[in-house]
Each structure stands twice: as C-alpha cells, then as structure tokens.
Amino acid sequence: MSETENAAIAAAGLPSGGKSELARRDFLNEISLAALGVAGLGAAVVTYQYFSPNVLFEPPTRFRAGNPDLYPVNSVTFLQSQQVYIVRTPEGFYAVSAVCTHLGCVTQWKPEANQIACPCHGSKFQPDGKKIEGPAPRPLPHFAIALTADGELVVDKLEIVKAGQALRV
Ligand code: FES
Questions:
Q1: Whole-number Å distance between alpha carbons of 151 and 169
Q2: First vs last Cα of the chain: how many Å apart?
Q3: Would you say the CB of residue 135 lies under 6 angstroms from ligand 1?
Q4: Quick one: CA dihedral 119, 123, 127, 128, positive or negative?
Q5: Closest CA to 146 of 60, 62, 59, 81
Q6: With a 6 A CB cut-off, is 100 part of the ligand 1 pocket?
Q7: Tens-place pLDDT, residues 118-131
Q8: What pTM did the predictor assign?
Q9: Contact 143, 156 (CB under 8 A)
C-alpha cells in the first residue's frame, strides 16, 4: 500500500490494512467457533435421542376395579380408561375385553339389546363375550380377575383366562 493510500485510509478513519486483516481473522474465528458449537449441540441432541429408549407409555395392565358392591348382579359396566367390561352375573364376576377381535374397534354395551356391539363392522357379542354375529373371528377375551387382600377387584389384562371362570365373591 502506498503512503498516499495509507494517508487516505487514516483520513477516512478506517483501520490500516494490518488491523483490518486481524479484525477479519478474529471475526472468522468467532464464526467458526459458533458453527462448531451449533454442530456440537446438534450432535449431542441426536446422540441423546439415539440412546433414549423408544417406548410408548401406556396405563398399567393390572388395575383395581373397586369394591364388588359397586357392581349390581346382572350388570355390565364399561371401564373406559381400561377398555374392559366388568360383568357380574349370579355366578360371579368376569372381566371381558371391550376391544373387538375383528379390527380392534372399541365395542359398546347396548343394554336395550343385552348385547355388546361393535360400531365399526357390526359384530355383536353376548355380555360374556361370546360372538353372536358379524365378522369378528373370535369371542371377546376374558381377563384374570381376583380379589385383593383388602377386598377390591383386581384385573390383569396380560392374563387371558378361559371364558366361564367366574370370580365368586
Ligand atoms: S372392528 Fe369390530 S366388527 Fe370390525
């Protein structure tokens, strides 16, 4: 750079060539560090997601259904949160799945017809889960039902039992 150019730069208040180069280098260093920081943070997030278990949190499969006196004899009670019917007959209690065995729709209790009906494709079941009609290939499964030590009904949806095994209370 000639002296005339340096004098013009100094007169304009601009930093001289050496200082300008240094400032640009600092700026590029800071940009590079910022880019590395962003890339490192992204890698940390992806790594954390990779090592986190990919699980679906569902309600527990074993649940308390309350005191037996809550259920009158000859009643069918739908427990929506568990998608289970608690059926009480003179012989005892059954826990019947409310999920249709055709394509998994949630069935509905129809007291006027004394039937469990599937709204999707018209399968119909008796209160004890036996199939009456429709495309469902199997009856509604029965879950294990028992009494706790403090006298409450407890249902285990992981344990399928034969239909007809009533819990006598
Ligand atoms: S899902 Fe119930 S009849 Fe098809």
A1: 9
A2: 103
A3: yes
A4: negative
A5: 62
A6: yes
A7: 999 999 999 999 99
A8: 0.69
A9: yes
